[in-house]
Amino acid sequence: MIPMETDKKAYTLIIAVSILFICAVPLSMKLLDNDVFYHLLIAKQMIESGQPYFFNQPYFNHPQGILHYYPPLFHWILALTSLIVGLENAPLIWKPLFYPLAVFSFYHLVSKSFDKKTAYYSLIVLSTVFPFLARTHMAIPEALQYILIPLIFYAYLENKEKTCGLLLLMALINHLYDSLLIALVILAHARFNRNKGYAIHRTLLIALPGLIIQLYGITGHMMVYSPPIDLWFLNQKINLALSGTSMLLLLGLYYATRQLNNPKNTIYLLWIISSIPVLFILPGRFPAYAAMPLSVIGAISLMDLRKNISDKKIYLLVVFLLLVLNLLFSTLFYPHIYDYMKPGIDEQEEKALNWIKQNITLDEVVSVGSAGRYYEGYKIAYYSGHKTTDSWNKSRYLYALYDVDDSGWNLSAQYGRYRIYERTI
């Protein structure tokens, strides 16, 4: 076990922030966003088949044999929890736990590498990053990842090769891409610091099965999910991500100009560098992924700022304004903010999905109209059991969120903006 210190003041802050977020955004305790139905679907298939699906996930295997795959750890957790509380209650049980556990692990990591004061300041900064609050209050593998990542670094800094390897293995079999970046951070840090006392090969040997699963999953993901790159749209999303983290980046600029770097900071700087690919590939995930290391750098900058402001009241006012602006900007420019204004499935969509379940036989494939509507496909498969396609030519039924002006399709049912069409020719 990794030894952990306790700090009642920090724990109180963590729990208070989590409760405040839930009270401010009560929808966060419902089946929010679309991703959760993807994961519920896989967990449901695991339960029904009695198989752990290390590599095979029937619904997501492309008809032509092209693989679409997601690491299994989170789905195992959902499936096992559902045996006690039921499938749809399983994610609701975990939702309020992910944020406190993630920030607990983060607090102890910073306490280990610096001190409790820096850790506490880092907590305060992190608590004003809305994307991190949002992602860790969702029932998704990414939320679990934010618990594991600080623990991986903690074990590494404690020279616990086997513990670090086990935690890294868990991260690798939980979420694609980011766990590989974390593995590279450890390798780079061990190399950069010439840590001869750390047997990195022991960590990698334990994590090897996870590396295999990562490469397997990434190969399949790149083969299936490879839409044409819209540079204008990508640039817009990158601008949103940078705007949302602008206050943290400003504090990072202060950190650089003040030359505040020291060996203790190295792992956080490498962590920030590892987020650069995320910014350019999945910019919507960047603010949450970079929140922890940027919060540490921000906390160091705020503590140093006290040296330049002699009046304590003015200093506290400046810190308060920076934190408020960080919360404001990270909320306003968060591209997924709309997910916190509506339930994952509203009343009208539930009626539409029930219509499909009751009126379309399971041997029929339901079209969702385009590759951009694959989330609706997950919901249909989860609620009704139908297979779905993004092809207009392989199905007699079409599920759409818009009017279809085509004489070949006849409107069979409509609930609000949700429409079910049947082919007439």
Describe this structure in words.
- The chain has 425 residues and is mainly α.
- It folds into 2 domains: 8-339, no CATH class; 347-423.
- Helix content is 62%, strand content 5%.
- The chain contains 18 helices and 5 strands.
- Helix 18 (374-384) links the parallel strand 1 (366-367) and strand 2.
- The radius of gyration is 23 Å and the shape is globular.
- 41% of the residues are buried.
Helical proportion? Answer: 55-70%
Number of domains: 2
* Secondary-structure element order, N to C: HHHHHHHHHHHHHHHHHEHEEEE
Q: Determine the strand fraction and express it as a percent band.
A: under 5%
User: How far apart lie the N and C ends?
Assistant: 65 Å
Please tally the β strands and state the result: 5
Q: Helical region count? A: 18
In the predicted model, the low-confidence regions spanning at least 5 consecutive residues are none
The strand line-up of the biggest sheet is 2-1-3-5-4
Task: Output mean pLDDT.
Answer: 88
Radius of gyration computed on alpha carbons: 23 Å
**Largest sheet properties:** 5 strands, mixed
Give the overall silhouette.
Answer: globular
Class computed from helices, strands and strand pairing = mainly alpha
How would you summarize this macromolecular structure in one to three sentences?
This protein is mostly helical and 425 residues long.
